[in-house]
Amino acid sequence: MNPRSRAGGPAQTLRLVAVAGARPNFMKIAPLLRELGERSRFEVSLVHTGQHYDEAMSEGFFRELGIRPPDVNLGVGSGSHAAMTAQVLEGMEPLLLEREPAALLVVGDVNSTLAAALAAAKLHIPVAHVEAGLRSFDRRMPEEINRILTDALSDWLFVTEPSGEENLLREGIDPKRIHRVGNVMIDTLLAHAERARERDTLERLGLVAGEYAALTLHRPSNVDEPAQLLQLFAVFEEIHREIPLVFPAHPRTTAAIEEKLGGRAPQVQLIPPLLYLDFLRLMMDARFVLTDSGGIQEETTVLGVPCLTLRENTERPITVSQGSNRIVGRDPAAIRRAVRQILDGPVEPARIPELWDGRAAKRIVDVLERDLARRAALRPDGA
Ligand code: UD1
After folding, report:
1. What lines the ligand 1 site, CB under 6 Å?
2. Is 327 helix (H, G, I), strand (E, B) or coil?
């Protein structure tokens, strides 16, 4: 049954297919699904590509973030970039043909994001990309290729920070397609901060608020090369001798320790991956965070926790210019110096970027509803 439109006629249902595939997608899709679910015009099919599949990398996040079970799971699993991309493409095509959505909604920059966008664009289904426009200008990063190509295929480009707009305009994207709306990952953080604060994460890990540091590391450029990994481990061990360093390790990193280093793990507090609420709790009260993740640079900015990014660049420059992030690279001396500065204090206060206010999903769905309703009104079948 269709709700009535303001004009009195039947308002057409707006069908969407939303895609999530890997861990960082889940925090981004959650607020969008919630907002879409509150508007009766939308009928949303949720597709999980299966790029991440473990309880610790996937199901646990669905549960904690209150994401409904996916309507379809493509079950692509792990594999080479080509194999993964090809399987998502193959899986998406019949599904899109069958559902005939008015648009495809994708988030972030993982392989699933690009593959789903490509399948839709080839079928002339318009694509909405949330977290568009970010650029590290480093094409050795698989995500950079995914970002550039997904943006080139998208009809709506929802950006989180001014650099995103600038990058897209420079690439010749029509300004009418670009919408700066804020950050859906921060919507999720703000929605869950209170629940996270109630967790007993620190007690369980034997930590005291403000007296430990947290570490994540999973980028191929950091973990796939044994010499690089060993050099980083030596610095982590030095830091751990000064302040407890907790390291929830990504499966890629655990595999590298086993397969490439013969089980030589760093002498820090190494633990399995944490789910969302426990990791948020861990970040909140950390003295500082060391990471090579993209999202964590943004989350620490909003939490006002110093972040040292173990990469040569960032696609999220606002976390440096306004937030609490510093790009320290992989040079042991530079990492040591940056840690020393934080431990000796004082730390410069961070500002929260404009529009990172918990309302990004609402802004995105407002734009989609307006544009899709307009398009539907022009089509006699209302699809
Ligand atoms: C992917 C994303 C990256 C994101 C990261 C977060 C791409 C190109 N990269 O990288 O942007 O920051 O997710 O986690 O899409 N594995 C498991 N269980 C799982 C999933 C993976 O054990 O549920 C293991 C497999 O051995 C797999 C490896 O982790 O080979 C890497 O997974 P993959 O999806 O290829 O890339 P990520 O490094 O996770």
Report:
1. 22-24, 51-54, 57-58, 78, 110-111, 142-143, 218, 250-252, 255
2. strand
